[in-house]
Amino acid sequence: MDATSLRAATTALRDSAPLVHCLTNTVVQTITANALLAVGAAPAMVDEPAEAGEFAAVASAVLVNVGTVHQRTAEAMRIAARTASEVGTPWVLDPVAVGGLTFRTELAADLVELRPAVVRGNASEVLALAGAGKGGRGVDSTATPEDALEAAGELARRTGGVVAVSGPVDVITDGARVVRVGGGSPLLTRTTGAGCALGAVTAAYLAAAGDVLVGTVAAHAHVALAAEAAARVADGPGTFAVRWLDALDAVDGDALLRASLS
User: Fold this and answer.
1) Is 210 exposed, middle or buried (0-12, 13-18, 19+ CB in 10 A)?
2) DSSP alpha helices (H): ranges in the chain?
3) Considering the entire predicted model, what is its pTM?
4) Of 49, 79, 104, 184, whose CB has the highest number of CB atoms within 10 Å?
């Protein structure tokens, strides 16, 4: 993939300030909102079923993250995803801990049928969602992104969208093309909500980029480059989290030209 297309996506994101409707888990709402603000988007945490469809229709993009789901938010997620699909709003599904717990696994299966533009998760989550595995250890993966590549490709062809598998090297596919994004830092895995924030940043990029694969790769590259910059000046996971938000803000289109892609 030509890195200049990533630079264009970042510029478009900063210029358009997309409104991202986040139905996400309670653990990560603050870091998710701050990450969106740092990359140039506008966050909104609307998870009331009576409002979810109305807001999804006017938002630039939607994130559905099943991390701490319960009956009320599950209803809101279904409504928002259905509305987004109907009106053409791009939306991202983050199937947190799918496979190990029946309720969220059944919910995620229903949501997949509404054809998300992007499914973003770790390898175990993607394998479980594709019906090729039983999930990981809670939110932690017990498989690698390369283990999940075939399942990710099948899932992407099924949804007509893109599947992004996070790991030391992220693997992103639309069922035909495969892009790998390297870089980042192990400290991302020691920062609460970093992966969930990546799902939201991906939604923001979808709203700005003209191509779903390009937008997804740009989001992952942006987050990875910021993590590298933060890790260089952090003393540990606590200072890394703060420095990472600063770095998300500092990354610009020219920085995306240095992304580690293969």
Assistant:
1) exposed
2) 3-16, 29-39, 49-58, 71-87, 102-112, 123-129, 149-159, 194-208, 212-233, 237-250, 253-256
3) 0.95
4) 184
